[in-house]
UniProtKB/TrEMBL annotation:
Residues 8-109 form the DUF5615 domain. Pfam families: DUF5615. InterPro entries: DUF5615. It comes from the Bacteria. This is DUF5615 domain-containing protein.
Length: 115
């Protein structure tokens, strides 16, 4: 069965307002502070997101591009990585909202996407 909207997990450099704005659009999102994973490495954050079936949202392009390639090399799966430039929270939420409303969770799975 295809899941329509990807469940989301925003990393610690993403504004809390982004999560609030995405929730107001009806999206399922949780954050690093809500999950008590503050201070974990990027790899640990991606592993956590994968363990709970969530696509990770980040501004950290370089490290998550590297992690995505490592996952491919290691034949590991993840639920998606969405990299968004650091803009104001409203623009970031809009970019993410467009992506997750255009693509299904299955289409986002194992993908590195740019918003």
């Amino acid at each position: 069965m295809t899941t329509v909207f990807a469940a989301l997990y925003s990393d610690e450099d993403m504004s809390a307002l982004v999560a609030t704005l995405l929730r107001s659009r009806g999206l399922d999102i949780t954050t690093v502070p809500e999950q008590a994973t503050l201070g974990k490495t990027d790899r640990e954050q991606l592993e956590f997101a994968t363990s709970v079936g969530r696509c990770i949202l980040t501004h950290n392009r370089v490290d998550f591009e590297r992690l995505h390639l490592q996952y491919i090399e290691e034949n590991k799966e993840h639920f998606g990585i969405i990299v968004v430039p650091q803009k104001n929270a409203y623009e970031v939420a809009q970019r993410i909202g467009i992506l997750v409303s255009t693509l299904t969770a299955d289409e986002i799975r194992n993908q590195l996407l740019y918003g």
